[in-house]
Structure formats: structure tokens, C-alpha cells
Design goal:
Order of helices and strands: HEEEEEEEE
Helix content: 10-25%
Largest sheet: 4 strands, antiparallel
Strand content: 25-35%
CATH topology of one domain: Immunoglobulin-like
Structural class: alpha+beta
Mean pLDDT: 79
Number of helices: 1
Shape: elongated
Distance between the termini: 90 Å
Oligomer: single chain
Length: 160
């Protein structure tokens, strides 16, 4: 009987654990693309909004600091309303028209309307809100209030 060398891992193929994750990600992206491609462009509830800006909220003892990422927009493109218990921010990022000579064009930017309604953790003083828009980040400093009011106040951004 001939002596054979024992190779316990000789038949194992090279396994790429992150290759499987990438394949799963591609499949999920394809599935999401198929689902969202059938949404109406302007008539459906989800089709009206092109993107949702990221928000960050920080609460101190006296104020609420709210930040939103809305790059590529002007202060005039934003509509901010402060209510007693929430902040509504609406806007529209308009597409730039570009043409490529060879016919190839790809964009991953999101253009169109958005709307965020952010609930406040406490009642706020609507009349004393300080707004700043710089480098694509909207910052609102909202003082806290001890009494409850029912009206809404519109906030104007300073234009540069």
C-alpha cells in the first residue's frame, strides 16, 4: 500500500467573505432600483420628494441646536417654519443642465423637492430662532420655552 500525504485543507477553495457581502449589496441595490423605478414622478406620495437631508439635533439646558445637510442650495431655496413642538423645513434642489459631447452622462446627485418635519423635544420660543446657512449646512438655534403657544412663525435666512 502506497503512503499518501494527508492534506486536510487541500480541497478547500479560496473563500472571499466580503465577496459575498458585495454580491448581496448589488442584489439589494438592483431590487431597490426595480421597486423605485415604478414610482410616479410627480403624482405619488413618495414620488414628490427626491431626497431626505440628514439632520442632527442637540439639546442643551437653554436651547435646541438643529443642523441639516442641504448642500448645493441657496438660502432662498429653503422654507423654514417653526411651530411650538416641531420645525418644518422644505426646499428644492434644482438640477444643473449639463451636456456631454460623447453622449455619456452619469449623476448620483439627488435633485428635486424635500420636506422634513422634525419634532422638538420640548416647547420652543419661535420668535427668537437664529438661523445660519453656510457651506451646505443649515443651523438653527432654537431657545426653549416654558409656556405653550399655538401659532407658527416663519424664519428668514440672511442672504449673502
Amino acid at each position: 500500500m502506497p503512503i499518501t500525504r494527508w492534506r486536510p485543507f487541500g480541497k478547500i477553495e479560496q473563500w472571499e467573505p466580503f465577496g459575498d457581502v458585495d454580491a448581496l449589496r448589488r442584489e439589494m441595490n438592483n431590487l431597490l432600483e426595480q421597486f423605485t423605478s415604478n414610482l410616479p414622478a410627480g403624482g405619488g406620495s413618495l414620488g414628490n420628494f427626491a431626497f431626505m437631508p440628514s439632520a442632527e439635533i442637540n439639546e442643551t439646558e437653554d436651547e435646541i441646536h438643529l443642523k441639516l445637510e442641504v448642500p448645493g442650495m441657496k438660502a432662498d431655496d429653503l422654507d423654514i417654519e417653526v411651530m411650538d413642538d416641531a420645525v418644518s423645513i422644505k426646499g428644492e434642489r434644482k438640477a444643473e443642465s449639463k451636456t456631454e459631447e460623447n453622449g455619456n452622462f452619469r449623476s448620483e446627485f439627488h435633485y428635486g423637492k424635500f420636506e422634513r418635519l422634525i419634532p422638538m423635544p420640548t416647547h420652543v420660543e419661535k420668535e427668537n430662532v437664529v438661523a445660519e446657512y453656510k457651506d451646505g449646512v443649515l443651523r438653527l438655534n432654537i431657545p426653549k420655552s416654558t409656556h405653550k403657544a399655538k401659532e407658527t412663525v416663519k424664519v428668514k435666512l440672511p442672504t449673502a
